[in-house]
Amino acid sequence: MGELFAILSALCFSAGNVAINQGSQGKGADNGAFLSILMTAAIACAIWLAQGGASRLDAVNPAGLLWFAAAGALTIFVGRVFMFASVQHLGAIQASAVKRLGPLFSVTLGVLLLNEPFDGVMAGGMLLIGASFAMLVLQSTRGKPQGPTPATAARPWRDRIANIGFLYGPVSALAYSIGYVARKWGLIHIPDAAFGTMIGSITGAIIFLAAAVFLRSYRQAVHATFTRFNSWLTAAGVLSSVGQVLYFYALSYTTISRVALITSMEAFLTIFLSIAVFRTREKVTAPTLFAAGLGVAGTALIVLH
């Protein structure tokens, strides 16, 4: 069951990546991150109430709340905000490729901190996924842009470095990986995935609002959330929220390492959705397709193990 939730989570995140890319209008514009945080809180709360969560409040304890809050700060705030920024600046395909650092971080943390099992088959899957990531990044850095877009035109030097060095993606991937470890510990104390997602989302929203007091871009994002409707960003918020909840449920049924490696197919699902379904302008080359094949092979190796 955990593997199925992980696969569905990857599909939601992939579709969300494409929606973010379609809905973002320039590097300074709202990318829908705050909207997605609010949607995650609302969806998780609805699921929790539908499952009779209010009747299980006696099982809530301070340790679990602290772990869930820490996980929310890392995944819902840092991880998601930088992930949305990565897609906004790099495009859906390149951003999802950079995000593949996440499984490598997660497996390492799961083994070192949670004593999760690790064997030769998982190592083989990691090597295949790592090779596919390296090939995607190499192809991305060598590829030539297909022409200016609103999000790439007139970028200052720091944004060009971010595009070349993939600065946003690794920050997001590391925050997600550490946050998922905190979330796993939270589930040990309070075994309620919907409740944990709700607490984490509320924490992320509070931090975002606190940041808006000091940062103009965050204030603009909060204002845009309640004053401008963007169908693509709304779809991205729903998909990212459902993906987050599904990921949390996957962690309830299986290990961090296994979930992280299965959801690494997100990069390749993003390629398929971008080119075959939404027909975006992002280019897919033969090396990119070969890298996708390596990633799928690595994922299959883990799932069938």
Automatic annotation (TrEMBL):
This is Uncharacterized membrane protein. It is a multi-pass membrane protein. It comes from the Bacteria. Belongs to the EamA transporter family. Its main location: membrane. The keyword Transmembrane applies. PANTHER family: EAMA DOMAIN-CONTAINING PROTEIN, INNER MEMBRANE TRANSPORTER. Keywords: Membrane, Transmembrane, Transmembrane helix. InterPro entries: AA-Vitamin_Transporters (IPR050638), EamA_dom (IPR000620), EmrE-like (IPR037185). Residues 2-137, 164-303 form the EamA domain. The keyword Transmembrane helix applies. It comes from Noviherbaspirillum humi. It is found in: Membrane. SUPFAM superfamilies: Multidrug resistance efflux transporter EmrE. The chain crosses the membrane at residues 33-51, 63-83, 121-140, 161-182, 194-217, 229-250, 256-277, 284-304. One of its GO terms (cellular component) is membrane.
